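Lecture 7 notes: from sequence to structure.

We start with a single chain of 139 residues. Read the sequence below before looking at the structure.
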Amino acid sequence: MIELSPSERRDLRARAHGLHPVVTIAGNGLSLGVIAELARALQAHELIKIRIQGAERARRDELMTEICAALDTAPVQHIGNILIVWRPRREEQDKNRPAAKPAPRAATAKSAAAFAAAARRAALVRAGQERRRSPRGRG
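Now the structure, written as tokens:
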């Protein structure tokens, strides 16, 4: 388990305030699938909230200890049915991947809104270039 100073814990609690739980642990408890999902969420976000359903306080404390021991995380807070844990992002050791990803180009959008915005920008740039080239565009 990672140990946090009180000021680090306070800062992490403040960062976690606006987060939503990413994993819910219910009747089946802490299975291998849940641990794998927690590991993926920690790698992606570093700071996560976990919702526990149908467990008494003592069991939730045990789950917090088990999660922190299994995933080498720091317990940040346990309030009600919500657990907050933190672990710094780990470097991936995959030999098949290149060492560094190339920076994404502006044309490769990740959402429909970003794609539409990129298309509008490109159209405006093309229209501006055409206006500068044509003699009628100047006034």
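The first strand starts at residue 21 and ends at 25. Keep this in mind for problem set 3.
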